[in-house]
Amino acid sequence: MLDKTGIAKRIAQEVKDGMYINLGIGIPTLVANYIPANLNVVLQSENGLLGIGPFPTEDKVDADFINAGKQTITMMPGSSLFSSAESFAMIRGGNIHLTILGAMEVSETGDIANWKVPGKMVKGMGGAMDLVASANHIIVAMQHCSKEGASKLLKKCTLPITGLNCVKKIVTDLAVLDVLPKGGFKLLERAPGVTVEQIKNATEGKLIIEGDIPEIRI
Amino acid sequence: MIDKVVANADEAVRDIPDNAVLMLGGFGLSGIPENCLAALLRKGVKGLTCISNNAGVDDFGIGLLLKTRQVKKMISSYVGENAEFERQLLTGELEVDLIPQGTLAERIRAGGAGIPAFFTPAGYGTEVAEGKEVREFHGKMYLMEHWLRADFSLVKAWKGDTTGNLIYRGTSRNFNPMMAAAGKITIAEVEELVPVGELDPNQIHTPGIYVQRIFQGKNYEKRIEQKTITKI
Q1: Model-level pTM?
Q2: Å from A18 to nearest chain B CA?
Q3: Which ipTM score applies to this complex?
């Protein structure tokens, strides 16, 4: 099994040199800590910054510099600042190479649900619907099952969806899977100590297994 | 140059009536018009429709106007971090229209730019699409979304001059420039008000044509929602 840090480390392996990347709140934010130092990538914050840097030291905290999670941040050398309209123009325009976000459910056709649980407090979708509708490549970081043991990798999402046919890859506590264009979760890797049988039992949607499934290396 | 300076926030918001449609700049608590919000609270104007990405927190930002029940409707993309908001939403005292953030930004931009509607892929196939025209362009599905405009836009900038040219700082720019253009009357409050000629025209983010009133704000709290630091 992978913990949250393990999931973030595995996703960091998907990052390639020269990418512009948007990281969602939660596990995706942790990915930034494990991107190899030899890669040049730029992190976008949809409230209007390209080039998110580390959190500031105590003396450099500034209310005018926050990320989309409203956390105080710094800027990298070469950063640029812009309005929310410009920010989503670059997202809709297809300029972001990789979007990493969390999910409550993903379907075997790549639908994602991550913004609303009916009957509970509705906080809003923020920028998630815009991001999933326009990203070139979407990787989801999530738990394979709910606390009660119910699969979150489904034939069809039960929660209100955020976007259709958009998720390309999923990294869970149990496995790495691709969502195939024709539908189905293709098992690529299994988490350390996890069997293919366990992954089968934890996946409600169509699971495609071909050949030996290697263990995740992080 | 046309002088647009008013004395203070109270004078700037003097004619905002009950049931007005307002746009309020800011993302979280960054770049919110603190002085105008305080003046609206003092004025006690009611039945407001507030177009703002967020709804503040319980005791700051738009949260202050929610507490005094001055807001009838919120049009936002994300309204977490506010317990009073949640209470009013669940009891039906407050109407809420939740809009994808990029669509919200573009609807406001369109309002200021005189574009009554446009197509965006965000929200296609979701409950956001209910009742909206759907059209296919180049093999992809899009929703038609309409512009948003306001009776009054309340924006906050870092520096401004007496004719209303504005410069924002850091990520406090966010929704402010589009809102400045989409308000019938735009009120700008700035941390530093300077005479015309002092701001470099190359650096202006909001041209003064969009701004009808400007004043030097005071006592900025610039509250931080989540202070995250790197320990040395």
Answers
A1: 0.97
A2: 23
A3: 0.96
